[in-house]
Task: inverse folding
């Protein structure tokens, strides 16, 4: 057999091996996390308040995670989308565009602990809000916005020029072309941006320690709908420890009898939530695309 | 048939004797040799008209000094070797060249006697009157129905009944209705065959009710049977629309068109018009040796 064919086979084997290796590592992590927490995870753990004397649960912490996720996405997605559209469709090559791109790369590579310090100075101290979910969301916005804008820009640039010209040749304006042809085609790429952003939000601890706080939440009153009352869990001004922060906290304090169980259970819950969010975001993206394109 | 001479008004010589513009086989690279381009006085029965058209891409001159007139309700074919600027010239009629960075258009292009490059003309309005069908079928990744009503929707038609009527009428005119009528709302335009996709693109263009339809090698990506269907369609559409078609296929030009313009390029690689005449004349007894050489396959 010739060398060319051997090389081809070798490449196939190596690439398959790498792919299987990656999947194995992923499955290994999930299996480890889930197995470690198998006797902790349950409805009680998901719903109950944390406790110092018993196993307790992470109900309010889980709620905070979802709350901050939604709040951050509400800020990040529209701004990132518009920013990405601007960079892909409107920005001309020049010093300003270069500067924007440079800042984008710089900000998204700043260590998140530094963003946390910045958030502490600006959103916690200067505003006199104290530790709040909103401060946490704003800190997350700082380093997620460039990522979201960048991924949107790439998704929009990947839309074939033929589609734009087809629309413009029918007398559609540039904005209509973007809104009705370009963005709908780019939805899968934009959804990828949302998922990566969301993953960073779920997983972020450092930037949130200094902004949304470390308090262990107790006794949330979900009937309190006053959005300006810092005691209401629905208010963006309530202190909001998230799961990631809570894992860090329980592990680093090491106090209490059930620390390890709580940490393991929280970790498993976090992994499951990320998984569920990713799958549902993809599904939602497909449904959205079908809806806006009518096919 | 209306035959529009594109000699400058004021000349009284008969078309056979008058110098055509531009005429020389080795054309001038600087000053045009023909009589001064008339400032106004467009031929009244020309639907489209160009005077002294030059197109530059950056420092490269792609099209040199093209003057021609296209009568209404006719099919005019643009033929010529690759790179002679046929598509570029075609796209001056609906200002699609505006979209190319560094492209610069000089001269006048008149639609019904009005200059479409006048600053007061919005390209968006112009393109409703002058449609363009692309070389590669480019339906949107939407349902057949949404593809067809895309233009009307953008121009403010929102009544369901009206859109339904437009969709059916346009698909019928594009000879696609019978093949797709069962599932126009759920079947994607991309699920059609290449020839059907191109007819869908023609239906989409017709739906905005243009006066002129430009076609940029509309059949070059299609098989012979699909090509034939497009040609039949062009023959039907010429009753209603003024059609300008760029084609590489000389048989196609002779089959579908009433008039044919032959372009080529000079030493500086700028495309220019050699002659524009009745198709029969171009293919049997062209005025220029260059045309004769091209259609008989001696070059190009």
Result:
């Amino acid at each position: 057999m010739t060398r060319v064919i051997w090389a081809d086979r070798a490449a196939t084997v190596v690439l398959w091996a790498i792919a299987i290796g990656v999947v194995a590592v992923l499955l290994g992590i999930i299996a480890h996390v889930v197995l470690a927490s198998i006797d902790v995870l349950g409805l009680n753990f998901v719903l109950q308040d944390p406790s110092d004397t018993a196993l307790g649960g992470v109900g309010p912490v889980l709620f905070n995670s979802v709350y901050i996720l939604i709040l951050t996405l509400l800020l990040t997605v529209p701004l990132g989308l518009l920013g990405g559209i601007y960079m892909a469709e409107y920005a001309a090559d020049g010093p300003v565009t270069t500067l924007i791109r440079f800042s984008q790369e710089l900000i998204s590579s700043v260590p998140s602990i530094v963003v946390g310090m910045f958030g502490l100075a600006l959103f916690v101290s200067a505003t006199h809000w104290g530790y709040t979910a909103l401060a946490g969301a704003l800190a997350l916005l700082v380093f997620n916005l460039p990522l979201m804008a960048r991924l949107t820009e790439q998704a929009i640039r990947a839309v074939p020029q033929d589609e734009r010209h087809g629309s413009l040749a029918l007398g559609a304006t540039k904005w209509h072309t973007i809104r009705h042809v370009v963005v709908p085609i780019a939805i899968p790429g934009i959804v990828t941006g949302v998922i990566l952003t969301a993953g960073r939000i779920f997983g972020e601890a450092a930037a949130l320690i200094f902004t949304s706080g470390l308090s262990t939440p107790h006794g949330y009153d979900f009937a309190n709908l006053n959005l300006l009352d810092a005691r209401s869990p629905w208010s963006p001004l309530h202190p909001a420890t998230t799961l990631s922060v809570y894992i860090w906290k329980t592990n680093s304090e090491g106090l209490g009898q059930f620390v390890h169980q709580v940490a393991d259970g929280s970790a498993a819950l976090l992994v499951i939530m990320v998984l569920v969010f990713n799958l549902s975001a993809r599904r939602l993206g497909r449904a959205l695309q079908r809806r806006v394109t009518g096919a | 048939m209306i035959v529009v001479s594109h000699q400058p008004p004021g000349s009284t010589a008969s078309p056979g004797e008058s110098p055509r513009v531009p005429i020389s086989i080795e054309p001038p690279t600087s000053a045009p040799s023909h009589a001064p381009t008339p400032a106004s006085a467009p031929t009244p029965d020309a639907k489209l008209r160009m005077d002294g058209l030059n197109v530059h891409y950056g420092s490269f001159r792609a099209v040199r000094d093209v003057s021609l007139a296209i009568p209404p309700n006719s099919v005019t074919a643009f033929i010529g070797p690759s790179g002679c600027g046929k598509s570029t010239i075609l796209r001056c009629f609906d200002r699609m060249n505006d979209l190319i960075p560094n492209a610069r258009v000089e001269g006048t292009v008149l639609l019904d006697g009005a200059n479409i490059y006048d600053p007061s003309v919005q390209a968006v309005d112009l393109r409703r009157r002058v449609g363009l069908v692309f070389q590669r079928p480019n339906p949107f990744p939407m349902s057949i129905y949404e593809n067809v009503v895309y233009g009307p929707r953008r121009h403010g038609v929102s009544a369901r009944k009206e859109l339904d009527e437009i969709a059916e009428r346009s698909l019928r005119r594009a000879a696609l209705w019978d093949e797709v009528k069962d599932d126009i709302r759920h079947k994607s335009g991309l699920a059609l065959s290449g020839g059907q996709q191109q007819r869908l693109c023609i239906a989409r263009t017709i739906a905005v009710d243009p006066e002129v339809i430009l076609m940029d090698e509309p059949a070059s990506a299609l098989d012979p049977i699909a090509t034939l269907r497009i040609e039949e369609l062009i023959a039907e559409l010429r009753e209603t629309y003024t059609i300008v078609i760029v084609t590489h296929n000389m048989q196609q030009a002779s089959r579908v068109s009433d008039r044919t313009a032959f372009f080529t390029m000079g030493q500086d690689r700028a495309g220019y018009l050699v002659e524009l005449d009745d198709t029969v004349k171009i293919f049997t007894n062209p005025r220029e040796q260059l045309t004769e050489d091209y259609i008989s396959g001696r070059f190009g």
